[in-house]
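Continuing the series of single-chain predictions for the mutant panel. This is the parent chain; the variants come on the following pages.
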Amino acid sequence: MPLIELDDVERAAQRLAGVAHRTPVLTSRTLDERTGAHVHVKAECFQRGGAFKFRGAYNKISSLGGDTLRRGVIAYSSGNHAQAVAIAAALLGSHATIVMPEDAPAAKLDATRGYGAEIVAYDRWTESREEIGARLAEERGLELVKPYDDPLVMAGQGTVALELLEETPELDVLLVPVSGGGLIAGCATAAKSLRPGVRVVGVEPEAGDDTRRSLAAGERLRIDVPRTIADGLQATEPGELTFEVNRQRVDEIVTVSDEEIVEAMVFLFDRLKLVAEPSGAVGVAALLSGRLDVRGASVGVVLSGGNVGASRFAELLASRSAAPAG
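Parent structure:
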């Protein structure tokens, strides 16, 4: 029996109704001209916490019993899941402890603290966040809210595609950023159920193509921590549960360079007036760089988040303008 089905995503949508934002779907004539397609951008940068992660976190935490909520929840995250868990816990009368890397973007650290969470810092290059999270959960009696490897989290993330297809039911292609695989697992489940012929394409940074390699090999492969500006896409291997869903429902994985990601961020800012963090812009980067032929197709692309600080955005723009021509 599959780990998640359309019914699970629809139940998540009911839990999220009136709590999560129904984010806009935007179009750009320039983007259509550049790609030869009809592109629909699902702007999750406008979600609570600035990213899609709130959907899965709230679906999971709202399913917990009263005693569990009173003890509190714990999560590990580079930033967006951290903020999502902190917000959801506060809304549901619980308290969140978050294990975050010391080098997480300052904007994400500050926002997570601002939502009332306790932060436990670790070195992502030498320590395991999974081990730290599991140990603290046991020591403190906290419920671990995993960032992606949980059916309730996957189902919550799938509401992104559910909403997108309600507005644009004719989609031929759906592009989704991939890290641990929870977003694309949920979205592929909803999309393939509602429109069986849709082509679901994941997008990873070139340095962080663990899912692409794993799907090609037919088994989960581990890579070194990716060195990429897409800090939200630095998973070293696909999730155990997400991989089982994605190997059945994802059609293809493409990769983009850091330079292409910055170009997509600039395009989104200039043309759609959207602030996208590097991880959130990879789908548009894949389109603009011609990673797949979508001419004549109706394309949905998930802009998964907008949590990039103004100073970091400026740094990325400066690195682009300083790069040698040609």
